[in-house]
Prior knowledge:
The protein is mainly alpha-helical. It has five helices and two strands. The chain has helices spanning 2-23, 30-41, 56-77, 95-114, 119-149, and strands at residues 80-83, 86-89.
Amino acid sequence: MHLVLTIGAALMAVSVLIIRLKASRKPVTVKKIVIPPLGMTTGFAMFVAPEMRIPLSWAFIAFAVGWFVFSYPLNRTTRFEVIGGEVYAQRSPGFAYILIGLLVLRLALHEVVEQYISVLQTGSVFFILAYGMILRWRLFMLKKYRDITGTPRQA
């Protein structure tokens, strides 16, 4: 089971990498920035199952690690450019390596954490970590997008 989950995570990461690289060929919109974290929010439904629940302190730490540590390299390498009146994400030569590095680090941490808590709780912790990472990165992207387009924030 553990091997299947590890292979599944690796395949998902490769899929994300391919999707992200293809997405840089299409214009960026607010909708494309906002939808991924909104879609990911449905994953919190997993906490309906008692086996998935974790202490709030674990959730806070996982979210903080995603927010402050894992999102940092993504924020540093995300840039936009205007081409023909449309906003595009600039391809960063290091982006693929950063995603792969984050995956390797996440898998290594997963191995360590799994020794102390159940597999299902480990999944919960790493979901919250990923959510913190994606949420901060997408908020950063939204701010940069609004800066480059001159779009004001709506109250």
